[in-house]
Amino acid sequence: QMQLIQSGADVKKPGASVKVSCKASGYIFTSYYLHWVRQAPGQGLEWMGRINPNSGPTNYAEKFQGRVTMTRDTSITTAYLELSNLRSDDTAVYYCAREYFVEAFDIWGQGTMVTVSS
Amino acid sequence: QSVLTQPPSASGTPGQRVTMSCSGTSSNIGRNIVIWYQQLPGTAPKLLIYNNNQRPSGVPDRFSGSKSGTSASLAISGLQSEDESVYYCAAWDASLNGPVFGGGTKLTVL
Fold this sequence. Notes:
The complex is a heterodimer. By secondary structure, chain A is mainly β.
């Protein structure tokens, strides 16, 4: 069964960093781009960036440049999203998603709620 | 504010056919394929349509997608109560070098 399992909810203070994990199983981890998408409460979807799990190159949305880092550990088929200098408007559910069809995400993680509050 | 424009709501009765639109620009829909996702409350989005009009395995043929110029649409025929959900369109954007999404259309089955 192909799936992405994410780490649990987290609460951070403004200015802190958060690291979310996304473990892949049931498919060849290094064969497909892994993307990160977030959704603020009651809002739409926002793309943050992607990582090539095979060789590691990343593409980040300009909005998050300088604050976001995407990495992966192929030995445990897990990708990570780290977002630094958190602000209250970073409060959102963060999803990882596999790009299988061109530009389309066929498998999504269950989402990780990150709350930024003082 | 979302890059792609979708009407915030749509509605229909069981058995009816409904359509919802998605409007973009030459930087996204005008030059790239359109994707549609369905999101039930409290769950992750689910891929509904890829490559403008292709359905992944398991998606009923009641769902269909089309694209023309800088706009796209999703049609649902034989509406069912379980179709009540939020539907998002997406397309790769040349300026962002990544996908952009619509704000979502909340479908209500009356």
